[in-house]
Structure formats: C-alpha cells, structure tokens
Design a protein that fits this description.
Layout: E1 9-10, E2 15-17, E3 26-37, E4 40-51, E5 55-59, H1 66-74, E6 81-86, E7 89-90, H2 96-101, E8 104-107, H3 119-124, E9 130-131, E10 135-136, H4 138-151, H5 167-180, E11 185-189, H6 197-212, E12 216-221, H7 224-230, E13 233-238, E14 241-247, H8 253-261, E15 279-289, E16 295-305, E17 308-313, H9 320-327, E18 335-340, E19 343-344, H10 350-356, E20 358-361, H11 365-369, H12 376-379, E21 391-392, E22 395-396, H13 398-411, H14 428-440, E23 446-450, H15 458-473, E24 477-481, H16 485-491, E25 494-499, E26 502-508, H17 514-521
Parallel strand pairs: 2-14, 5-12, 5-13, 8-11, 11-12, 17-24, 17-25, 20-23, 23-24
Antiparallel strand pairs: 1-2, 3-4, 3-6, 6-7, 9-10, 13-14, 15-16, 15-18, 18-19, 21-22, 25-26
C-alpha cells in the first residue's frame, strides 16, 4: 500500500505535507510549543493551527503528547517555550476559567460533572444566576439550559440528575457547559472513548451542527476510522513531535498509519474461518464485587473452545476488569464456578491458575505485567525462575535465562538493546511484546488478553493481532477483552457483550454488526441474541 501522488515524504525530518490546504483563516495558532516534565519531553517545538469553521483532528497514540498540548492551550499547563495566537493576538491566560472567558472550551475524556446535581445545576456551576442577592435562581438556570439546548439542537432534561443519565447525555452536558460560557473553539479529548457506536454517531451529528453554527473543533483521537469520518484536516503527533498535517479528503487510513509509524501497515486482520474444537474453558453464574463493595459481576456465564477467539466488549466499567481478575485469581468470586479442561479452578490463587494452564496479558502492563526495574531477561522468567531449566535448587542459571530471553526477543521482535536492559526503559509496544513473548512461550490451555493494544502504535497493533490469530490457528483458546470495538470485530470468532456486570448476549462474528453490538453495550438485547450463551 504505497502513498498516493500528492503525498510527499520528507525523510530529513520525517514530516509529511498535503499538496494543498483548505481555505479559511486560522482562528488559533500554536508555535514552537515545548513542554517537559521530569524525565519526559511531552511536546517538542510543536506547531499546530485551527482554521475557522473546521474540525481538525489531532491524531496519535496514547502518550504521543496530544492531551498535553491541548491542556497547554486550555490553560491547565504552562508551556516552557513557544507562543499561542488566538484571533491573531497572543493568548495569555491564568488558567482554564480565563481561557473559557476568551472563547476556548474543553470537554475532557473523563467528565468534570457533579453527579448528584441536576443537568441545569451542572450547566451554571460556578456561574450561577442568583435572586435576592444570594439564592440560586433555579428557574432561570433551567431557562438558560433550555434556550441553549434549543439553539444548538441538543435536547436534554434540565431536571435529570447526572448519575441517572447515559454517558452520551453526560457528554452532551459537558458540551453545553462550554457553549453556555461562550466557547467558539471546542477541544474534544478522546470523546468517543466511553461511547457506544450509536452515541458516537449522535456526537458526530452534534459536531457538524456546531461547525454549521460557526464553531471550530479540535478533535483528539487515536481511531483512524473516526478521524476519516468526521475531520476536515488531520495532524499526526508522535513522541511529542508533529509528523505532519494533511487534508482528510486527500488521505487514507493506510497513509495516516504510515505517517504514525514510518512504514506501510496492514490495517485489516487477515484470518481464515475458525475451526473450533472441544470446550477448553467455562464460567458459570459468576458473581463478584468491585473495590467499593458494589456488584461487579451478576451471573456471568460463557465458554471458550479450542481454536477460537471469544471477544468480550462493552463500555469501560461494566465488569470487564473484575471478570478477568476473577478468572486469573486476582479477585475472589462471591459465587459461581470456573473450569479449565473440565477441572474446577474456582478462586485459585494466581500462581495456581498459571500452573493450571492460564496465561494472562493484563490490561495494565506496567502494574501487573512487568517488574519495571528488572531486566528483560528477568521478566521473561518471572513465573518459573525457580524451576528447571532456569534453576538448580537455590542457584539461578543465568546463562540459560539469558539465552532463553535472547530467543524470545528475536522470535517476538522485542526492540531492546539487549536482554540486560531494564524493562521500564522499553517503549509501550515493546513492553507489550515482552509480556506476550513470556506468556505465549508456554503451552497454555487458555490465553487471556485484556486491552492488548492500548496505547500502542499501529505497527505494534498489527504485530500483536497477527500473533493472536496465529495462536488461535494453532488450536489455542483465546479470551480477548477490549474496549476497541473495531479490534473485537476484527479478531473475534464469537462476541459477548457486557453491560452492568451481565452478559447481554453472545453472537458469532457473522451476525455481529456495530449497531447490534452498540445496542447491547447500552443495555438493549436484540431478539436474536437473547438466551444465546
């Protein structure tokens, strides 16, 4: 997949440029922005501009520097170097409240709403209309909400409490808050991360309405499909540096992926139809509590067969994390049964689960997957350093351990200077490859991978997807848990949807659509999926 004409590459500084640029004057310019934290250069000499009436996407993987750059613009951080121009004048602010007064609003990935309060109360929070000098004028607050929601076509109940409305509606409140305070520029930070496909479509409709009304939007994302659907221009950022900017209409997903990693990437997972064998793993009526003592799992049941990938999807926080922890011995079940190859392994500790034949790629690779201060070689034998051939009694066989590590480094393409390098110094993608290498080097009965590509560049994602498909084709049972619906649909042979700690239904990939899955992720069960377990 080569680059199209009019998409030149300048190898001297690894930047790209579009053949032409859209019309319109910049409403916002960031020039030479540099920001460093202890040990991290988050932004390095970044130039970025937003034109009046456009949706400009800032594209990059987690940790690329997108959010830091926008937090500088919003006044949450102060840049070390560089300047910001807004409407042709230097933008000097003392904080977010000052930025908002000047017409720049930000909707954060994690909403800043007070959940026990109503929609109207959240809208005017910090800028409350008063009567009799000190009482909050509730009637006026509702009237202001109704007026602005009508003007922008964002209908919402002013008396509804935040804790009682959907995530999509909460995001709508955040947008209305910014508009209520006069925002002309909206920064949307990973706005689809917690939305169902239906809510994402509704958001895009809202964004287009705002542009039609004269607003300008910066859309922060790492999802190529959404970027191509909604944006006018795309700027790619990686390791705190701008790689280049292109017009969306003149680029493709492959070209954007090339910009992100510097080479051609296979974006479509190549896999043949699964040939599932006998049942390898089953859970029955699992119940468990979360860290706050509230129900996290409510009667979860499913099975995974040899030679298939069962994908579990859902909006974050619906029990996926607790499910994986219960299966791998990291959290106690209140009730239910877990069996592996017919053997009861319910509530076994993590080491016993490992010895029974479960390997686990955790969602937090740095907290649960690696000892960051240990070397790559040491991390490769974490679970079995005390067994042959790596140990003889009380002595570790370092020559065998290092040889084993070098073999896995080569086989799994872990980019590291050598096996003696500290795991914490590797990139996120190479840390993930190291965990995969360690886990898949065994002969497991069940492979559990949770958020396997979170924060990785498209090149690392391509590699990990290939490995998981290869394991399936070798007859392994694979349980995939991911918040990325595209990843679930690309890899899975069957898909289970979780909502509020329950399995809403399980369907073969041939029957799965974004619409069906999105409805189930929001708590609705399509008729064909009811009772399919």
């Amino acid at each position: 997949m080569g680059l199209a004409p009019g998409f030149p590459i300048r190898r001297d500084n690894m930047s790209y440029s579009a053949a032409t640029e859209p019309n319109g004057q910049p409403i916002l310019q960031m020039r030479g922005i540099t920001k460093a934290f202890p040990g991290i250069l988050a932004n390095s000499d970044v130039d970025f501009e937003l034109k009046k009436g456009e949706i400009h996407c800032l594209l990059g993987e987690n940790g690329a520097g997108k959010s830091t750059l926008m937090k500088i613009l919003y006044g949450l951080y102060k840049q070390d170097k560089g300047e910001i121009l807004y409407k042709g004048r230097p933008l000097v602010v003392s904080g977010p409240a000052d930025t908002l007064k000047k017409g720049i609003g930000m909707v954060h990935q994690h909403f800043m709403l007070i959940k026990p309060l109503t929609v109207a109360e959240n809208l005017v929070l910090g800028n409350e209309p008063v009567k009799a000098g000190f009482l909050i004028d509730q009637k006026r607050a509702k009237a202001e909400l109704l007026e602005i929601s009508h003007n922008f076509g964002l209908a919402i109940d002013p008396d509804a409490r935040i804790l009682d409305i959907s995530v999509g509606m909460q995001q709508r409140v955040e947008i209305l808050k910014a508009l209520h305070r006069g925002a002309e520029v909206l920064i949307l930070d990973e706005p689809t991360a917690v939305l169902t496909p239906q809510e994402t479509k509704e958001l895009f409709v809202i964004m287009r309405k705002l542009i039609a009304d004269g607003k300008s939007i910066i859309f922060i994302s790492h999802k190529l499909k959404e970027v191509l659907e909604i944006s006018d221009r795309v700027t790619v950022i990686n390791h705190g540096r701008i790689i280049g900017s292109v017009e969306t209409s003149k680029t493709t997903a492959s070209q954007l992926a090339n910009m992100m990693v510097g080479r051609e990437v296979e974006l479509v997972v190549q896999k043949s139809k699964a040939k599932p064998g006998k049942e390898a793993f089953r859970v029955e009526n699992l119940t468990a509590e979360n860290d706050r003592g509230l129900p996290a799992l409510r009667g979860v049941s499913f099975d995974v067969k040899e030679g298939e990938i069962l994908g579990i999807c859902g909006v974050d926080g619906n029990g996926q994390t607790e499910l994986v922890q219960c299966i791998t011995g990291m959290r106690k079940l209140a009730s239910g049964k877990v069996t592996l190859n017919g053997k009861d392994i319910t509530n076994l500790p993590p080491r016993k689960c490992y010895e029974a034949g479960i390997v686990h790629v955790p969602e937090d690779r740095q907290k649960h997957g690696l000892v960051l201060d240990f070397t790559v070689a040491e991390n490769m034998v974490l679970q079995n350093f005390n067994k042959k051939p790596f140990s003889s009694g009380i002595n570790l066989k370092w020559d065998v351990i290092k040889s084993h590590a070098r073999k896995l480094i080569s086989e799994f393409d872990v980019r590291t200077p050598d096996e003696d390098t500290a795991a914490g110094s590797l990139s996120g993608g190479n840390q993930q490859k190291a965990i995969l290498a360690r886990e898949l080097s065994r002969t497991p009965s069940l492979i559990i991978v949770a958020q396997p590509t979170r924060g990785l560049d498209v090149g690392a994602i391509e590699y990990i997807h290939r490995k998981l498909v290869a394991e399936r084709d070798a007859g392994k049972a694979v349980l995939l848990v991911s918040l990325e619906l595209d990843e679930i649909m690309a890899l899975s042979d069957r898909i289970a949807v979780m909502y509020e700690g329950r399995i809403m239904g399980i369907m073969p990939i041939e029957e799965a659509t974004e619409e069906k899955l999105g409805l189930m992720m929001a708590g609705s069960v399509p008729q064909a999926s009811k009772g399919v377990m």
